[in-house]
Design goal:
The chain is built from 10 helices and 12 strands. By secondary structure, it is of the alpha/beta class.
């Protein structure tokens, strides 16, 4: 499906303006708190020294949009329902969710693994050219609950590759939950929803032009999410010459690695478009795998043609269950 830029949330407000207003309000509250502290230490012969000490002791622990975003994730990391193995739904260690690291009940796994594909979480606005790419937030919530209630646990594609090729382990019923393009609800809604289960997702991110701020992506990575490349501009790779492929494949990976300091081992074909030339270029660019929009379970035998189940707005829980039952 083609990339589109929906609004985030039912209020229709610009998310950047909302974030700016919230940040300014927090700054005003912090200035008021500092003023009250200074007044408490103003009396006495040691007033100046006390004011200096107060400024050091009560200096806010985080600053800037990056620190603020990651800090809020860490505060929520200890809140989560229990997973299927009876452990806490999320970990407080550096903000990582539980399944960001292998668990005691995980086992070697060489077989196929289902990969789910989501785009926008929210209601499709009037006139949206691809309304089926919008999955309602209540539906997404119910689908994640259904997965856990039926024994599934989400892992990253990197963890699947480690189990397939390097002796790693996976949960008894692994599933990969991937999100294409970089829409704001993937941070505002999918991140806390998956955190509630102790799960990480896979963000297939365009290197340029997504709705996500850098601080959003850093918070997702800090929770245990995997970052994968989805080209620079969401181009149809089958229409590009060698130079165009080099830019969209190699340069997109370099941009993401440089910006976020993560390996970026995996790739996602825009709109699922690929051919033999594109596959060869993906492998040459250094990617370990590539995901498609062909419905089915991903197999170790075809690392550059990994099938996925695209979850559409009309699927609901029944559609998700039908997809997984086909494996």
């Amino acid at each position: 499906m083609a990339d589109r830029q929906p609004t985030d949330g039912p209020d229709g407000q610009d998310p950047r303006q909302r974030e700016l207003r919230a940040r300014r309000a927090e700054q005003r509250r912090e200035r008021q708190r500092r003023a009250r502290r200074l007044r408490l230490f103003a009396a006495g012969t040691l007033a100046l020294a006390a004011v200096a000490i107060a400024a050091i002791v009560f200096l806010p622990g985080s600053g800037g949009s990056h620190g603020g975003a990651k800090g809020s994730v860490r505060r929520s990391s200890g809140i989560g329902r229990r997973g299927t193995n009876g452990t806490s739904g999320a970990r407080t260690n550096a903000g990582l969710v539980r399944n960001a690291t292998p668990q005691a009940d995980w086992e070697p796994h060489k077989g196929p693994v289902p990969i789910l594909e989501y785009h926008v979480l929210g209601a499709a606005p009037a006139g949206a050219p691809y309304p089926e790419l919008y999955v309602s937030r209540p539906d997404f919530h119910r689908q994640m609950d259904w997965l856990e209630n039926h024994g599934y646990q989400a892992v990253t594609l990197e963890q699947v590759e480690d189990a397939w090729d390097h002796g790693g382990t996976l949960p008894p019923q692994p599933v990969v939950i991937s999100f294409d393009d970089g829409y704001r609800p993937q941070f505002t809604y999918a991140l806390p929803e998956l955190r509630r289960h102790g799960w990480a997702g896979v963000l297939n991110l365009k290197a340029e032009g997504s709705d996500l701020y850098e601080s959003n992506v850093r918070a997702m990575i800090g929770s245990g999410w995997e970052l994968a490349s989805h080209t620079i501009e969401h181009s149809d790779l089958t229409t590009l010459d060698a130079a165009g492929l080099q830019r969209e494949l190699s340069e997109s990976r370099q941009i993401l690695r440089r910006q976020y300091g993560v390996p970026v081992r995996d790739f996602c074909y825009p709109a699922g478009r690929f051919d033999a030339t594109v596959i060869a270029a993906v492998e040459t660019a250094g990617y370990a795998t590539a995901t498609t929009e062909i419905r089915g379970y991903a197999s170790r035998a075809a690392p550059y043609e990994l099938d996925r189940f695209e979850i559409l707005g009309s699927d609901g829980v029944a559609g998700l269950a039908a997809d997984l039952s086909s494996g």
